[in-house]
Amino acid sequence: MNTHAAPARIERLAVKSFGAVANVDIRELTPLMVLLGPNGSGRSIVFDIRQLSVSGRDSE
Questions:
Q1: Distance (Å, rounded) from C-alpha 24 to C-alpha 37?
Q2: Three-state secondary structure readout of the chain
Q3: 42-52: pLDDT as tens digits
Q4: Domain residues of the chain, as ranges?
Q5: Whole-angstrom Cα distance, residue 33 to residue 22?
Q6: Residue 20: what pLDDT?
Q7: C-alpha distances out from residue 36 to 10, 12, 21, 23, 46, Å
């Protein structure tokens, strides 16, 4: 009998006016995602948003 619960997973990411991100709504998140874009496009902000959503404070 498997008593281990599945790990928590983010299924949707919706952001408005956070850093370089004006408005984004990603609904089909997969366990592994590759973020591509030029410098200043907001790739690192995805990790800041995740940290904020989990802990209630940003990574700095």
A1: 14
A2: CCCCCCCCCCCCEEEEEECCEEEEEECCCCCCCCCCCCCCCCHHHHHHHHHHHHHCCCCC
A3: 888 888 887 88
A4: 13-55
A5: 20
A6: 77
A7: 19, 18, 14, 17, 12
